[in-house]
Amino acid sequence: MSSVLTIRGGVPLSGKVSVRGAKNLVPKAMVAALLGNEPSTLRNVPEIKDVEVVTSLLQLHGVSVVKDSATGDLTLDPKNAKTASTSAIDAHAGDSRIPILLCGPLIHAIGEAFIPDLGGCKIGDRPIDYHLNVLRQFGAVVEKRPGGIHISAPRGLQGTKISLPYPSVGATEQVLLSATRAEGITELSGAATEPEIIDLIAVLQKMGAIISVQTDRTIRIEGVKELGGYQHKALSDRNESASWASAALVTKGDIYVEGANQRDMMTFLNTYRKVGGGMDITDDGIRFYHPGGKLSPLVLETDVHPGFMTDWQQPLVVALTQAEGVSIVHETVYENRFGFTDALIRMGASIQLHRECLGSVPCRFGQRNFLHSAVISGPVQLKGADIDIPDLRGGFSHLIAALAATGTSRVTGIDIINRGYEHFTDKLAALGADFDLTTTK
CA 127, CA 269: separation in Å to the nearest integer? Predict the structure, then answer.
C-alpha cells in the first residue's frame, strides 16, 4: 500500500491539535518493561508506527501487550518472555532501529537476543557499532548471522566503565537498559542527557533501578538482581510540538498545541521568538502563531541537549525561507540532514549548502566533506511541486512547505511520517488544510 497526499497550498493552519507521548521515549519505555518481573503500565502512548513495531516485537518474545481502547494506555507483562523465531523477527527487518535496544533486556530475561537488519531514516551515519561495542563491554558475545545479529552472555552481563566519544542518545539508552540488572556498577561518561533520557531513567527508577546523573554527563548505575513493574505517564513529544509551531509560522497560521511543554522546549521557544513567532504559554499547552509583519533571519547551530535539537531544525528551515534576509544553519548532529532541501529549492527556496562549518559549535563533519551548513535567503514565494519524502522530520517539513506554497503539491512516501506523528492527516484536516489523501496497492 502507498499513499499520496495532494495539497492545495496557501491556506493558514488554524485551530487545535493534541500531542501525546514522545516518540523518542515511548518505545524505549516499552522495551524497559522486559526488565521487570511484574506488569507495567505506560500512559500517554501515541498511535505511531514505532509503537506498533515494538508491540509486535515484544509479543513475538512472549510479552503480553494490552491496550486500553478508551485511554490508549498500554499494560505490558513480561512473565512469559521467551525466545522468538528468527523468521518472525526477521519480518521486522528494516522497519525501525528500535530492535537493537531489546538486546540487553532480552539477555537479562531469556539469555539471548537476535536482532534483524535495521532500518530508520536516511539522515546520516547512525551505526549500530556503538550499540554492539557497548554490549561487548558488558561481556556480551556478538555473532553475525544471516539476516541479523545474535547476541548472548554466557556469564551474564557485567558492570563496566564506558566512555562515549559523542553523547549518543541511542548508545546511552543501550547502557541504561543493559546496566540496570548487570552485576556490579556501571559508569557511563559522555552520556546524552535529553529529557527523554531523564524520563527513561525515571521509568527505570520506578522499577527499582539505582541510577544517578552527575553534572559532567556521567551516569552511574548500580546493578540490581531484579526489577518490578512501573506506572508511568510519558513526557510529551517536544519534537512534534515544535513541528506544529513551525507549521503555524510558515503558513501564517495560529495553532494551539495541547500537551506542548515549555520546560522541555525552552531552547526552541527562544529561537522561535527571535525569528518573530508569537506564543502564549499555558499549563496545558502552547499557542503558536504568526503575529504579522516580517520574520527575522538568524544564525543557528544544532547541538546535543540543552542545545537546539537537530529534529527542530528541518521544519524551522522552512520558516527561515520566509524571513527577511540571510539565515545560516550549521548542523552538527547528523551529517546528511540537509538532503531534504533539494525539494525546497525546487519549490523556489534560495538555499546554498556548504561543506565548511559556518558556526562555532565543535563539529565532527567539517573535515569529512559533508554538506552540513546552509545559507538561506528570503523571503521567497514557495510554489507547489511533486515531492517524495526522504525521512521523518524532512518529510513533515515538506508538508508544511507545500501547505504554504501557491498551487498544488503531490507528496508521496508519507507513510514515513506515521513513524512519529500521530494521526497527522486528521490533525491537518482539523486545522483547515486543503488536501486529498489517496491510497493505492
Answer: 31
Percentage of the residues of the chain whose pLDDT score is greater than 70: 95
Strand partners, 148: 116, 145
CA distance 141 to 378: 54
Residues 6+ apart with CB under 8 A from 54: 27, 30, 31, 96, 98
User: Rounded distance, CA 248 to CA 242, Å?
Assistant: 10
| Residue 121 annotated among the catalytic residues of the structure | yes
Task: Please tell me the predicted confidence (pLDDT) of residue 120.
Answer: 47
**pLDDT tens digits, 364-381:** 887 788 999 999 999 999
DSSP string, 19-37: --B-TTTHHHHHHHGGGBS
Element (DSSP H or E) covering residue 77: strand 74-77
Give mean pLDDT, residues 393-404: 94
| Residue 338: CB atoms within 10 Å | 24
Question: Considering just the CA atoms, what is the radius of gyration of the chain in Å?
Answer: 22
More confident residue, 117 or 303: 303
Q: What is the residue-wise DSSP string for 384-428?
A: --EEE--SHHHHHHHHHHHHHSBSEEEEE-GGGGGGTSTTHHHHH
Give the contacts of 45 (CB within 8 A, at least 6 positions apart).
Answer: 20, 21, 26, 51, 67, 72, 73, 74, 234
Q: Give tens-digit pLDDT for 218-230.
A: 999 999 999 999 9
Please, are residues 151 and 182 in contact by the beta-carbon 8 Å criterion? no
Mean residue pLDDT of the chain comes to: 92
3-state secondary structure of 225: coil
Does the pTM of the predicted model rise above 0.85?
Answer: yes
Bridge partners, residue 325, by sequence: 378
Q: Given 103, 121, 357, 363, which residue is catalytic?
A: 121
Banded pLDDT at 117 (limits 50, 70, 90): low
What gap in Å lies between CA 228 and CA 157, rounded to an integer?
19
Cell of 158: 557485567
Determine how many CB atoms are found less than 10 A away from the CB of residue 358.
18
